[in-house]
Amino acid sequence: MRTVTELPHEVEAIENVFIPLRDGQRVAARMWAPVDATAHPVPAVVEYIPYRKRDATRGRDAYNHPYIAGHGYVCVRVDLRGSGDSDGVLVDEYRPQELHDAEDVIAWLAEQPWCDGNVGMMGISWGGFNSLQVAAVAPPALKAVISASATDDLYVDNMHYMGGCLLADNLSEATVMFAFNSLPPDPAVVGDRWRAMWRERLEGSGLWLDTWLRHQRRDDYWKPASVCEDYSRVRCPVMAVGGWADGYTNAIFRLLEKLDVPRKGLIGPWGHRYPHLGVPGPAIGFLQEVVRWWDHWLKGVDTGLQDEPMLRAWMQDSVPPSASYEDRPGRWVTEPSWPAPGVEDQEYRFAPHQLSPAGGQVAGEPDEAGEQRVSLLSPLSVGMFAGKWASYSAVPDLPYDQREEDGGALVFETEPLAEPVEILGLPRVTLEVSSDRPVAQLAIRLSDVAPDGEATRVTYGVLNLTHREGSENPQPLEPGRTYPVTVQLNGIAQSLPAGHRLRVSISTSYWPLIWPAPEPATVTITTSSSALHLPVRRPRPDDADHRPFGVPEAAEEDETTVLGTGRHSWRVTRDLATDVSTLEIVNDQGTFRLEDTGTVIHRDTREWYSFRWNDVTSARGETRTVRRLENGDDWRVEVVTRTVLTCTASDFLINAQLDAYELDEEQGHPRVYSQNWQRRIARDLV
């Protein structure tokens, strides 16, 4: 990445500003502004997230906000109420209080003497979510948003549930927030009241996993902050950004199709990161695109945005399977609108062990009723090499060679492709199925099989069959009854070479990516009534006729000193003496010092997902976090969390612990707070 030190405007950084809210509370903000902004007011750009501006996101903020500010904006990085150095307690994500506070922040910014009254909002993940949500609230000063790695539907495409199945990321993300919410504000900003504020958070934030597990269907808990409930509420331009290795990309297609405002979509090969920091690469000059976007919508400068295609997507080339990639080869393609006029549905019919293009010969012996049926009950081991629901670039977290999984799945495969096939969009599989149990699930993987047999997962989808007609009112299956179902696979752009094969693999389990069904269920598929539908895009002569992206640029990196190296690993083990298999994930970010504040940070997260043979009630997820913050002898704190999620056939069981310490060599690191939780939550057809 190229470091830019000479920018059009000289920038002044302001370490902390408190912004007043309507109820008398205050949120803390860090600001970057052109030095002459008071004399020559400029638009403001706000990023509004709970991840601690003073320490946790300081490095990323240093790349992004001074760069944008240097192009003539006041950039404001705000800690949500109850996070970082802000007042209050954060008790859940995307609740009405968060959006009301955002309205207050935007109104305050628009009224400042250095702001010309125009405000933009941007963010990735949480900040991408609430940028869309605030756009739907439509505060008058908000003129445009950039939403990266986010979704318009908190239930359908979020890290809690997928296809009505419980994601292990529900536990993982709850762990992230458990750790963040338990940290104190910085005394250098809030003064002596930091202990009282810390105590208030420790006592009041709660166990979010408990909340999320009590809403296993798409009920009224998920709807208020889901933009898809009424797209017409969004009345400002939207740039939607994501990556094929992320978990949130499907929403981009819906936003492009459903919004009725100026909008652009950008999808690269990346995981859960901004595109100028994107992994797998290639990273792009995303901040240049951000400045063009703000110049157009906040300053009224004609940057040519309106003449450019609605969607730019990275068409990935075929690659061997790997749990991590430095780069994904491919090329940029564009579409003028979405749905794209040149993308056509191509059907492949199912037959025993075969996928045949529609109209081709379907092999196999029918039963007495003239149907072709095949039954499946997968081992729980299918999914141990699936990777993360969303790649967070804490590699190796991508899916491995799918031959490791296919032994426990039904496999349907084409003949070698006679010519290359390129897909862009959301594949789907239509099936006729029956089950011998009232709750069952399917995981479907689409793979690119090379001539040497290596199988690279292209995309996948999962469906809790009780959610076959939607997730608001799931219904149990009637054992033995046949149902038509559609399994939506995640959106993708992928080129498949001639000589390769397409493979569809179907399993009844995909642990630990999704939690197992409450009891083993055998699913029977009527193959003669089932098909794969691919969104096929023909290469066009004008594919190369688009404005190229610049090289990645950013402002200067903050100076840090590494005091202890970290470690990232994924390890799958099987103990043959106990029949227990475990996926262990280590995300130890080591210990480092932020030189401009003197703060020493240590972050370590461990996750374990295990099961015993084919006992679905043995599924177990455990997470442990350690967070330590130090600044000289005046402020030395550590927070340790542990969460264990298990189940019976009827309930989910949570056991969680939180311990907070003030580190003091003379007093022996006294524990200042401790709380335990035990929860039993009924399974709701999950």
Q: Percent range for helical residues?
A: 10-25%
Radius of gyration: 25 Å
Spans of at least 5 consecutive residues whose pLDDT stays below 50 are 359-366
Shape: globular
Main sheet characteristics: 10 strands, mixed
Termini separation: 45 Å
**Strand residue content:** 35-45%
Number of helices: 10
Classify the secondary structure makeup into a structural class: mainly beta
Residue-averaged pLDDT: 95
Across the major sheet, the strand order is 2-3-5-4-6-7-10-11-12-13
Q: Kindly report the oligomeric state of this protein.
A: single chain
Number of strands: 35
Protein name: CocE/NonD family hydrolase
Keywords: Hydrolase
InterPro entries: AB_hydrolase_fold, CocE/Ser_esterase, Galactose-bd-like_sf, Xaa-Pro-like_dom, Xaa-Pro_dipept_C, Xaa-Pro_dipeptidyl-ppase/CocE
GO molecular function: hydrolase activity
